[in-house]
Amino acid sequence: MRIRKKVETVAVYDDLDIRREVMKLFFRGVAIIVGVILILIIFRPGWLIAFWVFVGILFLTGLLTDQFVYKTEMKLLNQLKYYNGRIRHYYQQTKMVDEAAYEAIADVGPEMKVQATKIHQILMSVNPDEEQAKYEETAPSRFLKVVSGLMVLVKDKGDKIDEERGSAFTRGISAVTKELNLEIMYRTKLAYRMRFLAGMALAPIFLALPIQNSLINMFPILQKFYESRTGLIAAVLIYSSAVAIYMLIRKMKAVGETQYKADANSLKWEKWLLEKIPFLELLMRAIGPKYNTRKYAKRYQLLKDSNSAPYVTWLTLRQSILAVVTVLILVGVLVIGHMREANSTLNSILPENLMSGNLTPEEYEEYAQRTEFDRNFIQDLQQRPEISEQAIKEELAEYFGADEITDSRVTSAYKRIMKKYDIVENAYLKAWELLIVIGVAAIIWNIPIILLHFQRSMRLKDMENEVHQFLTIISILREFENITVYNLLTWLERFSVTFKAPLQITIQNFDSGPEEALTRLAEENNFEAFKQIIERMQLALVRLSVQEAYEDIEIEREFYLEQRIEFNERSIGSRVSISNIVTFIPSGLLLICYFVGPVLYMSITEMLSLMESL
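Request: output the structure for the sequence above.
Response:
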């Protein structure tokens, strides 16, 4: 169902085609999962590695789905560009928009054909405006909304022919096509320059196990490193960084028309928790910034600017839950790491001086007996209230049948057992480790704030893009006769996302007082470019016509068009630069923690072993 919902977002297929594409993606994912299961059966990794590998597989299937959706969207945009050209051609022949829409259906590709058929059905319906409103709710692209809306407008009010500039309808189609070309170029360049980065970020998840097994086969002593607490922390660090970087790159590759908008349903869980758990809201108010303080006001304004629910207690709750979960996970990892280290120390059969090669059956049996003896001896030591070096050496001398406790066998066994005993006895969560966990949790506490700042910056760019779209719409509509300020407002509201709520309120209050409604709209929105559009509407209410109020809008639109071209170039450059840097973080960690680190561990172990033998 999740894959189906993802595919349905492009809305370019009928139900049968959607099922076919979903099943293709599903079987590809199943094939990958089965292949990985077979590989895991061969290598037989631990449960932790197997878990992270399956996490990587889930993300890989998501990557395939995203790739399919991207290709479909690009096909739709390119076919829409061709559709606009065919509409222009047939309209110039017939001067009838419905006939042009019908003729263009046969010329477009399969993705656009579904949308072209819907547009023609809207034009031929009894109530085109009502059908157009329904279509705008499901249209997969804002460009389709403008094109279909423009065709409905021409059929309803007729075209306006200027002796110098020609048809208002064809000029409108040209303006949409120019915007469309920018979007296609932006998506194409961004996708090309980031085409391998998501897969490279996930690669360490699948390469860690083969590297580990290869190094263990060459240097068996490294098995102790991978089974130790340090090895566990290294594995968790590699896998979690790969997942985090992959999600970041997916976010950087995303090219949505509006990335951040209010969604009441996604915020219900905070409200539900605050209502259901007693005293939780009081606790969040105590932890968070106090009301009527500068910090509280800054948080509240940040929530509003990022288009999030303006409740500071909800933000504090998200921060608290994230910090608590981080503490629990890190403490769990450290505790499990200590347990693994103690278990490896007690049960590992391989000797520390075995740098390479394999044990013979006789050697393996000898070391297995020695490991069993050490384990039983250490477990016995743990039950004693006091430990005496003299008593331990005497017991070892009795076991080996030595006359003196200074016997080399006794001394070697004593050092080996006490080294293991110290490791087992120190396998617990220490205060300094807990301090590090608290420090990491304090950093994680600020992540929701950082995300809100990011959302605010993205929303500002959404507002700029939406205002530019408004200028395009107004530049088209002003060409037609009998266009009023109310018509402009309704058109802007239909194609708006970021400004949709204030525009809806303005339309509702328009009949009771147009000037007051527009004044309130301008006062409640601080975005300067949008305020200028509203101020021109105020002039068109009392002094000028719509055509006169927006007489120089083409100049403004060309300016924003050039500005958007420059922004697209800078956006691609910054996204690619950041992605290129962070993509190699998991690979770097894999190289350091799973190759360089273990080799250094082996070298230090060998050096200490040589020093002890001297």
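Confidence is low (pLDDT under 50) at residues 1-16, 258-267.
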